[in-house]
Amino acid sequence: MYTYYAFTSYGIKLPRWISMCVTSIQTAQMLAGVAVTYIVYKIKTETNMPCQQSMVNLYLAFIIYVTFAALFLHFFYQTYIVESKKSKKE
Predict the structure, then answer these.
(1) CB neighbours of 24 closer than 8 A, spacing ≥ 6?
(2) Displacement of CA 87 from its chain's centroid (Å)
(3) Which parts of the chain span the membrane according to its record (predicted)?
(4) Contact (Cβ atoms closer than 8 angstroms) between residue 62 and residue 32
(5) What is the pLDDT of residue 82?
């Protein structure tokens, strides 16, 4: 991801599929964060296993991961699906 941003910051144009992959990987990372946060929440609330995470931390992590996942999904949809349909019509 950082290599991609380094190239683009120097004005190097990369193929569209690379930016799609970067966005997809970032989205997957956020969705994995949602899943891990949910699993830790379930462990903390339903088992006697020790868990060092506070409930506030879990709630905030869940909110952050869901928010970023939604933003990445929206960006992907607007950039690669809606724009793709517009360019096909022209």
Answers:
(1) 76
(2) 26
(3) 17-41, 56-77
(4) no
(5) 87
